[in-house]
Design a protein that fits this description.
The complex is a heterodimer of chains A (206) and B (222). By secondary structure, chain A is an all-alpha fold. Among the domains of chain A are: 1-89, no CATH class; 95-125. Chain A has six helices and no strands. In chain A, α1 (4-22) crosses α2 and α2 (26-63) crosses α3 (72-88). Chain A is extended and about 65 Å long. Chain B is extended. Chain B has a two-stranded antiparallel ribbon with strand order 1-2. With 222 residues, chain B is mainly alpha-helical. Among the domains of chain B are: 1-64; 135-222. In chain B, α1 (5-22) crosses α2 (28-64), α3 (67-84) packs across α4 (96-128) and α5 crosses α6. Classes of the chains: A mainly alpha (206), B mainly alpha (222). At the A-B interface, α1, α2, α3, α4 and α5 of A face α1, α2, α3, α4 and α5 of B.
Chain lengths: 206, 222
């Protein structure tokens, strides 16, 4: 058996936390809260380890001949400046620090979302050109229809009742598919989680 | 003047990303903007995690907590130290125990969330559509049947169990295939409506960014 101690830890911790969800009584709840508190610390530490690894990779790309990436030093300088400012100003709740971070984050995030419009329009056109099947036709028709519905062009306050009810049906049409997709995702998560808790999957033993 | 610096930084980055994207994603401007973005984002996350998770839950209890708090902080401290070994390839096996703890806790939270947050609530929402005492009469009933057919056919579309056949590729039973066909149409409609929503949002962002740049140019020129 591969990694028996780690597997036992994953199963025991998982079962106790799960028990806390479905049998919310005294000692089980206390144990669940303590174990979840430790998991939060570990998740935070995992994030820090991930960031340190990112810095390590870009440090190598900045210094090792043959692996040089001209953008890596920029990332390292910006990262160190942000961390330095964060510690010097006393943490993330400092208004000046928030202003500095937002000055970069908000414009880049908004602009990346903005260029998504161009990418999506281009992808939709390519879909029709390349894979013209029933699914593509329904998809593109539905996209155009919901763009019109979202724009409010078809909204009528005093229109015919038949038109109103037809618009109502159209608005509810995606609910059925969305519910099926949501249930599918939940069943997938359930199966994956149970496989880990039964020791069948061990993604931690690498 | 200093209060204008964030606006100017925003304008420069907007132009970098927009121009960079229009010239192709692999050019100097776009990559520079994305590397700056990643640098700031990771730096912010580093500071955030340190101040809001590590300090209050690990460092402060160890330095100024009661005996009970110190004892309760020791296991996550040991596991955290073991997790740090994941950075070094030769010692990364020492971090497996911490990863196992995280995976076990994550799996339990995922199961709890899936069952309590999605399966039960979505099933209850579907059942409630058949509750005629809530009013709505026959149209509510039809609505319920329609949603139920859509939900079940969508779920069946993702069922890929098939019987092996002699001299032919495995195929799903005919009723399942028929239901999956209906489910495929429901999925296409749902994805189309989601696509329209995302497209509307990104178009709004594009208009906002172009408006921002236009206003800035106007302010600087006039």
């Amino acid at each position: 058996m591969r990694a028996p101690v780690a597997t036992a830890v994953a199963i025991v911790v998982g079962l106790i936390i799960l028990l806390g969800y479905f049998v919310p009584v005294g000692i089980v709840l206390v144990l669940r809260d303590v174990l979840l508190g430790w998991a939060i610390v570990l998740a935070g530490m995992a994030a820090l380890v991930g960031i340190i690894n990112l810095v390590k990779v870009h440090w190598r790309k900045s210094t090792v001949r043959g692996e040089r990436d001209p953008y890596s030093p920029v990332l390292l300088i910006v990262f160190l400046a942000t961390v330095g400012a964060g510690f010097a100003l006393g943490g993330p709740s400092n208004p000046t620090f928030q202003q500095v971070v937002n000055a970069v984050q908000i414009p880049v995030e908004t602009t990346l979302t903005a260029v998504l419009a161009i990418a999506l329009a281009y992808a939709a056109m390519r879909l029709l050109g390349r894979r013209m099947g029933l699914m593509a036709i329904v998809f593109v028709t539905s996209t155009v229809l919901y763009l019109l519905l979202n724009s409010g062009i078809l909204a009528v306050d005093s229109g015919a009742p038949a038109l109103k009810s037809a618009l109502g049906v159209l608005q509810r049409l995606p609910v059925a598919g969305a519910r099926g997709i949501l249930l599918g995702i939940a069943l997938g998560s359930l199966t994956t989680g149970l496989r880990v808790l039964m020791g069948v999957d061990r993604p931690f033993s690498g | 003047m200093p209060e204008n610096i964030p606006i100017l930084v925003g304008a420069v980055l907007t132009v970098l990303v927009l121009l960079g994207y229009l010239l192709g994603e692999n050019n100097f401007l776009f990559r520079l903007a994305t590397y700056i973005f990643i640098g700031v984002a990771t730096g912010y996350v580093f500071v955030l995690v340190f101040y809001q998770v590590i300090t209050p839950r690990l460092i402060r209890p160890l330095l100024s907590g009661s005996f009970e708090q110190i004892v309760l902080t020791l296991p996550p401290l040991v596991l955290s130290v073991m997790l740090v070994f994941k950075i070094f390839p030769n010692l990364s096996r020492l971090g497996n125990l911490s990863m196992a703890y995280l995976v076990g806790a994550g799996a339990a939270v995922a199961i709890g969330g899936a069952v309590l947050g999605t399966l039960i609530t979505q099933a209850r929402a579907s059942i409630n559509l058949f509750d005629l005492s809530a009013g709505g009469g026959i149209s509510r009933l039809l609505d319920g049947v329609f949603i139920l057919v859509g939900t079940l056919s969508t779920l069946l579309y993702f069922s890929f169990s098939a019987k092996a056949q002699r001299n032919a590729a495995p195929q799903r039973p005919v009723p399942v295939r028929a239901a999956a066909g209906v489910g495929q149409i429901f999925i296409a409609i749902t994805l189309g409506s989601l696509f329209a929503g995302v497209f509307t949002a990104s178009l709004t962002a594009l208009i906002e960014r172009l408006g921002f740049l236009l206003n800035l140019v106007r302010t600087m020129v006039f």
